[in-house]
Write a structure and sequence with these properties.
With 250 residues, the chain is mainly β. It is built from one helix and nine strands. A hairpin with a 4-residue loop joins β2 and β3.
């Protein structure tokens, strides 16, 4: 009672499907706190370096995904199939780097800093080139590439216990456009049904946000809100995506 290959399967035509999978993401997070000037809130280079290092991190979260896809195939030669594919998936990545009660090297107090990156969804629009050799069980092995887009949010928040009481926070949410390359294979299970497995590498570029750390208190001849330093957090996102799907060909 073994499965028999669907020898009458035709790769040409539109299809729709659904998939499950996961991502391994490299989120290179960097924070910089400006430089020392006569009007900067951070008064020493060692304090700036301490804050910058505390807000920098390189997490590699693993995130489950699920989504839908649709596309179309065209027979170019008996061995080569050309096509395009669009997909949309959940992509609920959330990484937060928190530093609490870190003492300034200058001894002026301690500070708390939180930096974070999160995503909501992910979509790609790609072309693909498939090789369909004359095997006993039909199969298509393909290369694919195109555009990738994801909603990415980066945020930071700062406060300290110095006599001048520095505070600042910001966030930036962006529909980030990048690119993707990958490979996969598709195996027919029945006349209109096929199983697909795919790997994609996605480069989503860099998203950043900049807050202004100001002194909310005064003293020693310094007026409130007269000193400020930029606090910039940037995240460079690279995604390895693995998915397994089922397609229905019309």
């Amino acid at each position: 009672f073994g499965l028999k290959p669907p020898t009458d399967f035709n790769w040409a035509g539109p299809y729709v499907g659904a998939y499950l999978g996961g991502t391994l993401t490299s989120a290179d997070m960097k924070t910089t706190a400006g430089s020392v000037t006569s009007a900067s809130y951070f008064s020493t280079t060692t304090d700036i370096n301490s804050v910058s290092q505390s807000g920098s991190n390189s997490p590699q979260p693993i995130t489950p995904i699920m989504g839908i896809q649709f596309g179309d195939n065209f027979i170019f030669t008996p061995l080569i199939t050309l096509g395009w594919i669009m997909d949309y998936s959940t992509f609920h990545l959330s990484e937060t780097n928190t530093t609490n009660n870190m003492v300034y090297p200058s001894g002026s107090g301690d500070y708390c800093l939180q930096t974070s990156v999160s995503t909501n969804w992910l979509s790609t629009i790609r072309g693909r080139v498939g090789l369909t050799p004359p095997t006993a069980w039909p199969i298509m092995v393909y290369a694919t590439g195109g555009l990738a887009i994801a909603n990415v949010k980066v945020a930071n928040s700062f406060s300290d216990t110095s006599s001048l009481t520095g505070t600042g926070n910001s966030s930036n949410s962006n529909n980030q456009l990048g690119w993707t390359l990958g490979t996969g294979f598709e195996l027919p299970l029945a006349q209109h049904l096929s199983l697909s497995a795919e790997y994609l590498y996605l480069n989503l570029g860099t998203v950043e946000t900049t807050s202004t750390v100001e002194n909310s208190a005064g003293g020693f001849g310094i007026n409130p809100n007269s000193l400020s330093s930029p606090l910039t957090t940037s995240v460079d996102l690279h995604v390895n995506l693995f998915k397994l799907g089922v397609n229905y060909k019309f």
